[in-house]
Write a structure and sequence with these properties.
This protein is α/β, with parallel strands linked by helices. Helix content is 26%, strand content 22%. The chain has a 7-stranded mixed beta sheet, covered by helices on one side. Helix 3 crosses helix 5.
Length: 473
Amino acid sequence: MTRLEAVQVPDIRRYGGGSSARTPSDSVRVIAIPTPGLGDVTYLFSANGEAILVDPQRDIDRFIAAAEDIHTRISWVVETHVHNDYVSGARAVARKLGAELLLPAGAGVAFDHVPAFHLEDIALGSTVIRPIHTPGHTPEHVSYLILTEDLPRVVFTGGSLLAGSVGRTDLIGPAQTRQLARLQIASVRRLATLPSSVAVYPTHGRGSFCVTNSARGITSTIGEELSHNGALAPRPVDDLVDGMLAGLSPYPVYYGQMGRINRLQQSDFPDTSPPRLGAAALEAIRELAVVDTRPRRRFASGHVPGSLNIELGDSFATWVGWLLPFNSEIALIVEDAAVRESIVSLARIGFDRVIGVVPDLSFQEGIALVSTPTVSASQLGEAIVSGQARQVLDVRSPGERTSSALPGSIHIYLPDLADRALAEMDQNETVWVACATGFRAAAATGILEHLGFDVVMTIDGGIQDLAGLVVPH
């Protein structure tokens, strides 16, 4: 069940700052509908029985249900930018409900919509949608200031001004990154001229790869950002840009496909009840992707050779999209109760071709399962000290590696493993693979075994737990 968060709208002074008169807020409500796996939030702004839906993902039923729960009608669906991290559901919601679809004027999409031009107000009864051009995260990016009874109440900032951060500017391409970063600084400074009590509702937050650094949370106010957001510090623009671009983490490769999809006529939502696959069918598709969603211990005890273990959870779809070719045909090993969840998660990032599911491997006669030896982090440490573990692979991110590196270990970030493993590791030597928790080590195990390596998986804890370990020479 999607968690809905009712967000209190703060008291607002009149736009321009002159008066301290308050406006009645009983009829104004903002519902935050998070998608934890993406680190994103969709918002439902409701006033006087009319609602505005901001930046919805592709699984639209939960947003329609949220509006029905508070007895309001979605009249407008708005997008702050052409999204790079998920397939948008804005057009689908608008078509299903007969709502108006509002997109940045520079979005360049291939379907009908109302273009949002800078400071050209759109009236919805006593509510006004005021687009503010805020390029940076993307060139066309627009934030939306919402006014009721002529009072500015909230601003939906998408990937521009975030809670304690700003949206990254390197997703379009390296040639544009620095100039977009300069535009981002100008944009957040523009937003910072709004009254300090205006509530800030960004789409991207903690856990999103669209954020330059760790966001503080979901929502904020202009005043809080003026006090705490480093991008609004009174420093030269180039210094701020250097800070924004320093140490950006890698982002999933499927991001490169999302903009194209979101500009075109999108396909229908995939079937969430694909056929069950038996042993014969699973053998026949062995050259395709078999994704095992079970907990890593069950995977290690017996799995289909060549399968990829990505445990079902918040980051499931992100890692599928990062490790497999875009929109691969997939057979899922997943329990019946989790089939819909897994397919919806994949559909959000454009992976629509789940050709079948295997609910229980124990009934798959005719498949020779393989097992993988496992150790805890402490057992890995003992194996290193004793000289048993001679080839240790760290598949954590570059930032994690900088914080705590194990001397003598090989570092290949998990998304790069398939391309680099054969060139950088000894295939005649067992690989002892570790990450921080075991999640990524399990995913790496499937890749390494497919490449012909013998693997020992660190299933609990990881490299950071071996600080101070004396590694024999």
